[in-house]
Write a structure and sequence with these properties.
heterodimer; A: alpha+beta; Translation Initiation Factor IF3; 2 helices; 30% helix; B: alpha/beta; Hypothetical Protein Ychn, Chain: A; 5 strands
């Protein structure tokens, strides 16, 4: 999937992946896609909740060898 | 004199129609209002140890990241969390049976051991608290958990409001110089109206 910016949150624990993602999104423009890499298993549920609450759409997410990736689309 | 039969019929029709339309319109308006309003969180932070410093700053910074309006009132020992230097926050395993006592280094089998040290022994060893704090800080680093300094800075950056309890400042003989800049100093009468309007209010 195409993305405009990447955030490497691997090795970081709750709530840092969310806080860093929020910061990264702030610097992006509406419609752009942020890819986030994480190793925190709690971040799977957390990014779903973050997307729902903030209106930034979670386009896709996946897991590969205990690493998680998320694609968040910045809301307009 | 009562209503004429015609008016009674019209009244009935209006009532029926209103019953049909009103719930939908009210529901739509409530939903629109719900979506446009900013949720809010009010926290009282009353504890000043390393372990208890986490909940207010984690919840505060995360709520701010979710777009919430956040206020944290620091009172009693919680005021320690607003000092300029918070690198000396400590955690005590003494009288805290819920705290696992594990080593943050060595082979996995060693790290998984839980050191069940009796209270009487903990209390008798000088510096026990400092050693426990050192080990805890190493564990925090190893597991990628943020430091309190970092969470506090992130909270401030996200415009979480910090309010310091002036009564506690007087009680413990602190001065405003001991604390980080740009704090509001206030009391219970300031917190309560904020908590009244908050969607979530927590005492930590």
């Amino acid at each position: 999937m195409n993305f405009d910016k990447e955030l490497d949150a691997r090795g970081l624990n709750c709530p840092l992946p969310i806080l860093r993602a929020k910061k990264a999104l702030t610097d992006m423009s509406g419609g752009q896609v942020l890819r986030i890499l994480s190793t925190d298993p709690g971040s799977v549920k957390d990014f779903q909740a973050f997307a729902k609450q903030t209106g930034n759409e979670l386009l896709a997410s996946g897991e590969n060898n205990k690493e998680f990736e998320f694609y968040l689309k910045r809301k307009q | 004199m009562g209503a004429t039969p015609e008016i009674a019929v019209i009244d009935d029709l209006i009532r029926q129609r209103l019953d049909e339309i009103l719930p939908q319109r009210i529901e739509a308006q409530l939903q629109a209002r719900e979506q446009s309003r900013t949720p809010s969180l009010a926290i009282i932070a009353s504890k000043g140890t390393l372990d208890w410093a986490y909940p207010p700053f984690i919840l505060g910074s995360t709520a701010a990241a979710l777009g919430w309006d956040v206020s944290i009132f620091f009172t009693f020992y919680g005021l320690n969390l607003l000092k300029k230097d918070i690198s000396d926050l400590k955690v005590s395993p003494l009288g805290n049976p819920g705290m696992p006592m594990k080593m943050p280094f060595g082979p996995d089998w060693f790290k998984s051991l839980n050191w069940n040290i009796p209270n009487a022994l903990q209390a008798g060893i000088p510096g026990f608290e400092s050693v426990a704090t050192l080990l805890m800080k190493q564990t925090i680093k190893n597991t990628g958990v943020a430091s309190i300094e970092e969470l506090r800075a992130l909270s401030r950056e996200a415009e979480v409001k910090f309010i310091a309890c002036q009564m506690t400042v007087d009680l413990f003989g602190f001065s405003h110089d001991d604390f980080i800049d740009d704090l509001d100093y206030a009391g219970a009468a300031t917190f309560l109206p904020v908590a009244q309007k908050a969607d979530v209010s927590l005492f930590i």
